[in-house]
Design goal:
Length: 425
């Protein structure tokens, strides 16, 4: 039987071995000079990074409206010796920043800054901390690499929450001359990556014919009945799906009045799964539920897919291991993954190029993401400590990537090995 990928913790032994290894060698031996310098650089700019995080916290902007965020971050970058191209990839609130005066070179690493907020609860997903950590990593790494910093880039990626910003940046060619992407995300655990799910968001619109519900029901075609049949069909389908699959939806239009047979109803649904193939398979089976329900009442159905769809995370074990080794250097233990997961446009980027999306704890698990308490935790003492750790870890891992041909070869091999449906750690 295929193990439940969402709720098992894969690679436990592997993790433990890595831990024992990093513990047995003293920190000083492992920590080479550039990495010590990275630590010092990040510490030295701590107040600047906290102020970026706080500025974003107090000026939350939702998907593709992140004008203040872009302006503020660009200004901090320019003040610190970066050249910033605003509107990168033809996306108004995206940017591409590189060390000024350095010719862009390969290999190149994209450090990512997300900065979009959620409606109503502001930075309840902690993207203010993501942006600040990305800025810190880019500045520290550049200072340490000096004139060899041509492979460092910071990409401002808007609209992670539902807007698929990274998908537009891929299409806009922003990542075309880059070789790996990395970011950190605040959370409740220190974990290297989750098996994020691919997602299709779509509207089902059922068409029927109005008639008086009491006087002439025989002349009507009930679009609400079709929707309810489809909903029940989907519920029956659930029993036969693999554990990583998720289908959830709401009725957004159910009719106009009880005495009118509804001629139009609408539902908004998400289908999610851990692989692209399985996501497509479930989506097709849900479409069968919809079309057969429409046929059953003598009506019809239109399906509208809301682009872009989200791809599942393609894990890169070599890049993840490099990050874990650096966590060891900073004495950060890797936690067990509790298996809770969602979807992100980072999944799409990870299908395009080697990428990692680790999490660093800023609170305990009694505080859920997408809450005001989580938002406040981003600027707590623990949140600030995680921000600095995140900046250091990103810079150190990017340093490894840029300076070790061996590591890059492994990463390329892992990427070429294809779709990994299992979360590693
Ligand atoms: Zn997020």
């Amino acid at each position: 039987m295929r193990p439940n990928p969402v709720f098992t913790i894969a690679g436990k032994d592997h993790l433990k071995a890595l831990h024992d290894m990093t513990r047995s060698i003293s920190r000083e031996n492992l920590m080479n000079e550039p990495k010590q310098l990275i630590e010092k650089e990040v510490e030295a700019m701590a107040e600047t990074l906290f102020s970026v995080s706080e500025f974003l916290l107090h000026n939350p902007e939702t998907a593709y409206q992140e004008f203040k965020a872009c302006e503020h971050i660009s200004e901090v970058l320019r003040r610190n010796g970066f050249a910033v191209e605003e509107g990168a990839g033809d996306v108004e609130t995206a940017f591409l920043a590189r060390p000024a005066g350095c010719k862009a070179t390969r290999p190149a690493v994209a450090l990512l800054a997300e900065y979009d907020a959620l409606p109503k609860i502001g930075h309840g997903c902690g993207h203010n901390l993501i942006a600040a950590a990305g800025v810190g990593a880019a500045l520290a790494l550049t200072r340490v690499l000096g004139e060899n910093a041509g492979g460092v880039a910071l990409v401002g990626t808007p609209a992670e929450e539902g807007g698929g910003g990274k998908v537009r940046l891929i299409k806009g060619g922003v990542f075309a001359n880059m070789d790996a992407a990395m970011m950190i995300h605040p959370g409740q655990y220190n974990i290297i990556g989750k098996g994020m799910l691919g997602r299709i968001k779509f509207t089902m619109a059922f068409h029927g014919r109005t008639a008086h519900a009491a006087g002439s029901p025989d002349q009507g075609i009930n679009a609400l009945d079709a929707l309810v049949l489809a909903y029940n069909g989907i519920n029956s389908l659930r029993q036969h799906l693999r554990p990583d699959a998720r289908i959830h939806g709401i009725i957004t239009k159910g009719g106009d009045a009880p005495n009118i047979i509804p001629d139009y109803t609408e539902a908004l649904f998400y289908v999610r799964a851990e692989t692209i193939d399985y996501r497509e398979e479930i989506f097709n089976r849900v479409l069968n539920c919809a079309t057969s329900a429409a046929a059953a009442v003598g009506g019809s159905v239109d399906i509208h897919v809301h682009e872009p769809s989200t791809d599942p995370m393609r894990h890169n074990h070599a890049l993840q291991d490099a990050f874990i080794a650096n966590m060891g250097l900073l004495n950060i233990a890797v936690d067990k993954d509790p298996g809770r997961t969602g979807s992100s446009d980072m999944g799409n980027l990870s299908q395009y190029m080697p990428a990692i999306h680790p999490y660093l704890a800023i609170c305990d698990d009694d505080i859920p993401s997408h809450s005001t308490a989580f938002r406040d935790a981003t600027v707590s003492e623990r949140g600030k400590a995680a921000l600095l750790k995140g900046a250091k870890l990103l810079a150190m891992t990017a340093y490894d990537f840029l300076t070790s041909e061996n590591l890059r070869e492994q990463i390329t091999k892992d990427f070429a090995a294809g779709m990994s449906s299992q979360g590693l750690h």
